[in-house]
Amino acid sequence: MKRVAVYCGSRVPKNQEIVELAKNLGSFLAEHKLTLVYGGGKVGIMGVIADACLANNGEVIGVIPTAIKEMEVAHTGITELHETQDMHTRKALIESLSDLFVVLPGGFGTLDEFFEILTWRQLGYHNKPIVLVNKNGYFDGLEQFIGRGLEEDFLRTSIHDLFTITTNFNDTAEMIRSELEF
């Protein structure tokens, strides 16, 4: 069974379209027999996507550091919950468990996960697809940053080969289908 990591926030945003995107993605993964791999939380968008996947009889693997688990935010109803000593170990385990990465709108933690998995791909540590979901222009500032990095020659034009940007659920689902070949 293929596994899809989803990086997302531990808070629920004001924009309900992002909540719906997470619900649709969780349902999609379950319906297509894809395992969700995520941060292991029951709160925020993390909880939304896990619950949607579980509600459709999907398999959900969570990876959570002990310190965060002790804050009582771990989702206890998922298929598997791996506890790690720290965030570094968490990110490495999520990478090793996953075949593809989807980045939903989120906060600093989500960006940290995106940049680390992107850097690892750039360095050749993995060659797994990465999909950044720029729902409602949430990541427009990031796209501007990348443009500036290209202008200043801090980034190579091959950066565009390392990840794909989508803007909605349908394009994201199609990208997952295409990359995982089903």
Average residue pLDDT: 97
The strand line-up of the biggest sheet is: 4-3-2-1-5-6-7
Largest sheet geometry: 7 strands, parallel
Number of domains: 1
Rg on CA atoms, Å = 15 Å
Indicate the topology.
Elements: E1 3-7, H1 16-31, E2 35-38, H2 44-55, E3 60-65, H3 66-69, E4 80-84, H4 87-97, E5 100-103, H5 108-122, E6 130-133, H6 140-151, E7 164-166, H7 169-180
Parallel strand pairs: 1-2, 1-5, 2-3, 3-4, 5-6, 6-7
Structural commentary:
The protein has helices at 16-31, 44-55, 66-69, 87-97, 108-122, 140-151, 169-180; strands at 3-7, 35-38, 60-65, 80-84, 100-103, 130-133, 164-166. The protein is globular, with a radius of gyration of 15 Å. The protein starts with a strand and ends with a helix. It is built from seven helices and seven strands; from the N terminus they run βαβαβαβαβαβαβα. The chain has one domain (3-177): Rossmann fold (3-Layer(aba) Sandwich), CATH 3.40.50.450. It is an alpha/beta fold and 182 residues long. The longest helix has 16 residues, at 16-31. The protein has a seven-stranded parallel sheet with strand order 4-3-2-1-5-6-7, with helices on both faces. Helices cover 45% and strands 17% of the residues.
Short description:
It contains seven helices and seven strands. It has 182 residues and is an alpha/beta fold.
